[in-house]
Every structure is written in C-alpha cells, then in structure tokens.
Amino acid sequence: MFRKFLYLCPVFLLCACDRVFEYHPYDLRLESKYKNINVKNIARLKEKDTGSDTVRFVFMGDSQRWYDETKDFVNHVNKLEKIDLVIHGGDISDFGMKKEYCWMHDILSKLKVPYVLIIGNHDNLGSGREVYKVMYGDLNFSFRYGNVKFVCLNTNALEFDYAVPVPDFKFLEREIADAQEGGYDKTIVAMHAQPGDVVFNNNVASPFQEYIKRLKNLQFCLHAHAHSVMVNDFFDDGVLYYGCGSMKGRSYLLFTVTSDSYRYEVVHF
After folding, report:
1. Which stretches of the chain are assigned E, i.e. beta strand?
2. What are the start-end ranges of the H helices in the chain?
3. Could you tell me which CATH class the domain 34-268 is placed in?
C-alpha cells in the first residue's frame, strides 16, 4: 500500500503544480495581452487617425504603487470628450517587478483611448528593463498622430551606470533625418527624467538640447519624475519643459495642439 502511495505522489504533485510551484517575481513569461503594448496601441492610433490638425492628449506619470488613484484617473479621463491618446511618462512600477507592470496595465487598459508608456527610472530596477522590453518594446520610440510627431526618449542615464549612451544620440539623429520627410508639421518630445536631474546625464545636457531643437518644428518637451507640476525653460532658449504630477497627487496635464498653437491645463481628479 505504501509503495502504491509513493507511485501516486508525482501525479498529485503535477495536478497541484499551480499551488506547489511559483514563478520567480522577475520571470519574463507573459500572456500575449501583456506583450508589445506600445506597438499595438500605436497601431490603434494609426487606425483612427483622421489627419486632423488638432490633437488632444493627456500626459501623466509616476503611477507606481498608487493603484486606486490610477483607477480614478482612468475613470476621469474616460469621461472627457475628444481625447486622442494618453502618454504615461514613466515609473509605472515601483520596483520594476513584472507583477507591478501587469497590475498597472490591467488598470490602464480600461482607458477608452490608446496609451503608450515611456520607461522611468523605477521601471529599470531589478529586471524591470527586460520586463519593459517584452511588455512595451523599444526604450526609445516615436509615432505620428494627426500632424504631430511624438518622440519618446529614455533619459534614465543613472540606471544604466553611464555604460550605454543615454540619451541615445544615434536614435535622435535618425529622427532628425526623418524631419526632411512629410506627413507631419511639428514635434513634441517626451521623457521621464528631465535635464538637470541627477538621473539625467547632465554631461551631455547641452548637446542633447541642440539635437532636439533640430527636430521638425519642436513645440515643447514633456517629463514626469518630479512628482509635481512645473514649467521650465531649462536652457533659456524658449523651449519649455512641462512636468506632470504623480498619481498620488491626483493630477494630469491635458494638451490641445492645433495647426498654429497649443494650450494646456492642469486637471485634478
């Protein structure tokens, strides 16, 4: 009898494997719904792009561990009219854990409009950078909507120990070359960490600014990271950097870009 029990033990263990074995928190295995989210949502944007000269979008960031506040944010944005997209300025997670990424995406996926995520410094912790690549894609990316091109940059140099070029000037050179092509009239640059912050590589801050000014009709720059609303002309050259608050602070920025101007407002929820 005892021998029969020993033979049956592996069967019981296999049947109960979900309870016996747990994946490592940094394991990169993911369901398809958690893969290539930026690529999928940019494709959704292209499908609904009417070529309008007016683009309305939300910029927010630093959702981290504030899940309830982010749920309220989603509900608030879903009540707005004529919003085209949401840009998350980074720090979707607190510790770079896969579960954090997935939990927050489950909330943000309830948005009625597509969203894209820029990588933040917290998102790089642990194996968070690899999780980001699987879930969202390239660390630097760009896309067009209406007559606007959005250039989204990884500026978290401190998290890379300055071992690789951050910001990526080769990527910016390709974007500058693309400015010779048609299809859009103006550019907006978005990032997580702003120039002057310890996370940014301030050794190359001035060249960085000169590069982005060569982008086609640069309108302004966006950043998260500071957890507070701010507007700065960091280089005294007229290029404004708009910083958003965190989800803990329950606010976001709403931009309306038209053919000849733009306006923004700070929205509290």
Report:
1. 55-60, 85-88, 115-117, 141-145, 148-153, 186-191, 218-223, 230-232, 241-243, 251-257, 262-268
2. 2-15, 17-20, 37-48, 67-77, 98-108, 128-135, 169-178, 205-213
3. alpha beta
Token pair recorded at residue 240: 């404004």
pTM of the model: 0.90
- Which token pair is 88? 């998350």
- Report yes or no: 262 and 53 within 8 Å, Cβ to Cβ: no
Burial 186-209 (b: 16+ CB within 10 A, else e): bbbbbbbbbbebebbbeebbeebe
Q: DSSP assignment, residue 194?
A: P
Chain CA centroid to CA 108, Å: 12
pLDDT by position in tens, the chain (length 269): 545 444 455 544 444 444 444 455 557 788 989 999 999 999 999 999 998 999 999 999 999 999 999 999 999 999 999 999 999 999 999 999 999 999 999 999 999 999 999 999 999 999 999 999 999 999 999 999 999 999 999 999 999 987 899 999 999 999 999 877 778 999 999 999 999 999 999 999 999 999 999 999 999 999 999 999 999 999 999 999 999 999 999 999 999 999 999 999 999 99
Instruction: Take residue 215 and report the two structure tokens written for it.
Output: 């982008």
d(CA 242, CA 202): 18
Rounded to the nearest 10 degrees, how much is the dihedral formed by the CA atoms of 63, 64, 68, 72? 10
